[in-house]
Amino acid sequence: MALDTAKIRNMAPADLAKEEEQLREQVWRLRLQMTTGQLQDPQKVRRARKSLARVLSIKREQELKAEAPKPRRRRKK
């Protein structure tokens, strides 16, 4: 399942966690199929890994944004 970054950015944190879990399971199943010779399209593994990386990157981005300290205001002299 290829996801747009815009769609991923609009997901709630709970939805991101669910999507991450699904993609991890999908990557695992595809790798298993590849080793047993049942996989028809090897590019599916690559697409699933990239989608997982997108989800993880955006998830981390949101975590950092939430943790970021507020910028201090400087006094004018």
DSSP summary: helix tally: 3
Q: Main β-sheet, in a few words?
A: none
pLDDT under 50 segments (min length 5)? Answer: none
Can you count the beta strands? Answer: 0
From the N-terminal CA to the C-terminal CA, the straight-line distance is: 56 Å
- Helix content, binned percent: over 70%
What overall geometry do the principal axes of the alpha carbons give? elongated
Oligomeric state as shown:
single chain
Radius of gyration: 18 Å
**Please, what is the average pLDDT?**
91
Q: Element order, helices and strands?
A: HHH
The percent range for strand residues is: under 5%
User: Structural class, from helix and strand content?
Assistant: mainly alpha
Quick tags:
elongated; mainly alpha; about 80 residues; about 0% strand
Describe this structure as you would to a colleague.
By secondary structure, the chain is an all-alpha fold. It has a domain at 25-67. The chain is 70% helix and 0% strand. The protein has three helices and no strands. The model has no long low-confidence stretch (mean pLDDT 91).
Give a brief outline of the structure:
70% of the residues lie in helices and 0% in strands. It has three helices and no strands.
List the helices and strands and how they pair.
Layout: H1 5-9, H2 13-36, H3 43-67
Helix pairs in contact: 2-3
